[in-house]
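Need tokens for this chain, all 269 residues.
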Amino acid sequence: MTQKVAVLGTGKIGEALLSGMIRAGWAPTDLLVTARRPERAEDLRARHGVTPVTNAEAAKTADTLILTVKPQDMGTLLTELAPHVPTDRLVISGAAGIPTSFLEERLAQGTPVVRVMTNTPALVDEAMSVISAGSHATAGHLAHAEEIFGAVGKTLRVPESQQDACTALSGSGPAYFFYLVEAMTDAGILLGLPRDKAHDLIVQSAIGAAIMLRDSGEHPVKLRENVTSPAGTTINAIRELENHGVRAALIAALEAARDRSRELASGNS
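Here are the structure tokens for all 269 residues:
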């Protein structure tokens, strides 16, 4: 792999992406990084052998720029980059809620932009990265983005109009599962189990259930029904979940996350 790729604003997700790319075959010498703090940049060099540069140097040197800053910092970063980004650069945005048009309006006319929403399981190479093309991005640009983000998990192409929904489902999704595990752990303690044992029981159950969902090809209703015996323990638990409106609460929560993504896109911080 000979193309130079720069990760700008390299935090935890950016570092996970770098690490995954190196394991997938990218040479560290072809990977550039920028960071707000010089000591952070030097730490990345020491750990991964990548090259710290300024944002302007990255724009002039790299073939692909991956912008991993927070949504509220994207405008400032683009103002700094715009004078230095030729139109043959691929710019990938990883900022939640920021549409490709926001970048296209601030970069040179014709600059290809791809929007990617990944999630924190990138830290363990199990990310779900959702990829959308801007108005000047080609199939080749999308394939290149898939190659990069495929180093840390699965990728999925969607129309950009679906990105806010994907952010609600997948970008924020791991937090919902962590929240559920937290609540179930508390329930286990209430039922008399030590915290560590409750945690182990729930985490392994979650891993097993996720693998069954992924590999069985069965609808989740079918898998749930396989656990739900007549007049048994599971159906009593499901009844209480329905009585407390858990399904409706989840739908409302996801709608709220989608709406917040839209607010970020409109500039409401």
